[in-house]
Amino acid sequence: MKTPILLLHGALGSKEQFVSLREKLSFEREVFSLDFEGHGKSKSETNFSIELFAENAINFLRENKISKIDIFGYSMGGYVALYLVLKHPDLVGKIITLGTKFDWTPMFAECEIKLLNPEIMEVKVPAFVESLKQLHGTQNWKNVVLKTAKMMRDLGDNPTLKQTDFYKINNETLICLGELDTMSTQTESKNVAKLLPNGSFQEIKNLKHPIEIAPVDTIVAVVNNFMNTNN
User: Fold this and answer.
1) CA–CA dist 49, 198 (Å, integer)
2) Strands 199-204 and 92-98, how do they pair?
3) AB hydrolase-1 domain: from which residue to which, for each copy (predicted)?
């Protein structure tokens, strides 16, 4: 029986973005997804952090009596997955990250935070704001944006994962990056893949960062190819 897989969404995202991916991956194995605390229909009064989201995933596994899981982490979800496996290696089998930012600096964080002002977003990117309202609700989307901005500032000042942490992660890990993705870089993605004892890197042609516009069949093929090897 194949190991089930858990899909972890990115910053400002929710499990609703994985509906098509989850459906197609379900032909091969059991697939789970969750909303990180404060996202989607999950409410929270707590500040966002990678540690909090990893704990959300651990609690989800315990609640569903899942003893071993493979993980596909998109963007921030990939960062959460690596932190989770660093702290609880026995719970996780293989990991795939897609479009994950690893090289967090104060300068990069500030550039991202400038884009996360709800009032400006309503004027500059109204269509994106509407999508956030659909994901998180009209009363909660601003909280998600503001808490995400604070989390990014914290990551810039003090990255949750240090370079020495990657050496300690022995799980088979595939670091993926879209050819047209500007959130991360090939340099940092390949560097992390080299630091991981069982890491590898794969570029996905013609792929941009937003998961909403990613061709689902392409992602499914990458996930199944990696997860099914010796599984």
Assistant:
1) 26
2) unpaired
3) 4-114
pTM here is: 0.96
220-224 long-range CB contacts below 8 Å, 24 or more apart?
220/21, 220/24, 220/25, 222/96, 222/174, 222/176, 223/5, 223/25, 223/72, 223/96, 224/25, 224/28
* Tens-place pLDDT, residues 133-160: 999 999 999 999 999 999 999 999 999 9
Fold of 5-102+161-228: Rossmann fold (3.40.50)
Burial of 29 (0-12, 13-18, 19+ CB in 10 A): middle
Rounded CA-CA distance 175/108 in Å is 20
Mean per-residue pLDDT of the chain: 96
DSSP state of 55: H
Token pair recorded at residue 176: 């993926």
Distances (CA, A) of 137 to 115, 129, 173: 20, 11, 34
